[in-house]
Structure formats: C-alpha cells, structure tokens
What does this fold into?
Amino acid sequence: MWSVSHGARPSSAAASRAPARKDRIAAVSRPSYPRSSSTTRPISGPTLGRSAPAGDRHPRTVADLTGRLDALLDGLGIRTAVGGHSYGAWIALSYALHAPERVRRLFLLDPTPCFAGFKAAYLLRAAPVLLRPAPRRTRAFLEGETGATPLDPERLALQEAAVGFRACRPVTGPRPAPDALRGLDVPVLLLLAGNSRTLPRSRLRSSGGTPSSAGVAARARELLPRVAVAVLPDVSPHALPQAAPPGLGRRLSDFLAGPGD
It folds into this structure.
C-alpha cells in the first residue's frame, strides 16, 4: 500500500512526536510508484497486512492495520492520498472507509477482494503455492497467471526468495459493505487488469457472461459516488504494476495531484 503526501510538511507538533515513532515512518522512492512531482511524494510505513502468532507488534485485525496508518499520519501531521495494488488496495480502501476525513484521494490498482470474490478455479490454482510454497512452484504459478506478459526478473527473484521466510497469515476482513461504499465521499481512481483470471464472470444470462473486469467496473460505478474507472487491456493482475501500460504513471500522478475535497 502507498501513501502520497501533497504539498505538506509535518507540523511542529508532529515533528516533536516523530522521533518517538522513527521506526514507523520511512520515506521511499521506487520505480513502480507513481511519478513524483513538485507537490507530491510517496511515503510508506511499516509492512502491513501480515500477522504472526507471537509478539505484540504484529497486526492481527483490520483495526490493527488502520491503527498503524493512523499513527503514521499522526507522526507526519498530514492529510494524504492513499492507494495500493491487489491486497494493498483492499487495505487502502479499508482505511479510507475508516478515516475518510484523513484521505484526500484514493487509487485502487486491480483491488481484491473489494467489489467481487475470487474465481474458484483461481483459488485451486493458487492453493499449492500457499500450502506448500517452493520457488519452482511459485515461478510456474506466476508464469501461468501472467500469460504472454514477461515477468520482471528482479520481482520474480524476490518472490522465489520469499518462499524461504517463515509464513505469516495475512490480516483479512470482509468485503466492504455496499452502504459504506455509497457513503465514501472521496475521489477514487479504479484501474482494473483487463486480462484477469482471478475473478468470476457475470452470472447474468443477458450479459452473455460479462468479463470479470467489466463486471467489477460496473459494480464500482454503482457503489462509489465519485469514482473514475478504467480497464487496462492485455495485462493480468500478477503482472501489475511492473507491466503497466504506457501512460499509467502519468495518469496516476495527474489524479493524485488533483485538489483534495
């Protein structure tokens, strides 16, 4: 998940609190983040979304996740834009629903599971990777899900190396309630992978089996009052954001630089 500040600097009160929270705040710069401008810069806090059976510092509930982001923004003393990809987008949306007054803008890059569940066949394909992780099994799964899109070698190497780490259970929660989404008065940019194999097709006979991305787009437009939606053609969820089509970075930058309401 990413947070992007907009033309703001920590207040003196926040600065006085920052040293005590130094382990919670880090400035970052990565090629896959939206392009920075003179008024925006990406920031991130600690790794979110993972829980462990021991220790009190690991998030275990959705409230733990939102609490950590509250602490990050308290330390920085800013109102910010938030967003993310896939599971990170779910965390970002959950936070926007938790504290809409602290969120200027929200971008969601192929979020799951925010507007629809997973296709059963996808869960079956992913099960061996989750239950018995191994580098070769991880590589085969990602290559199968991304199709003709070449995988980024560095990202693939990182995914394979992560297999050797002790597994932690992700912090999960329910899909956002429709009424909560309808009440979210925040500008939202929703970008969906057009070549998705993770989501079920529409069950409406009249639609002829609407592609999953189109069904999610229609659902989001129905629920979110201030959403702009685009489907990114010929790219799968697992190829994002590294294989994003040209112009995506500029589109995100323009959206994030827009005025907060």
In short: The two ends are 22 Å apart (CA to CA). Residues 5-38, 204-209 have pLDDT under 50 and may be disordered.
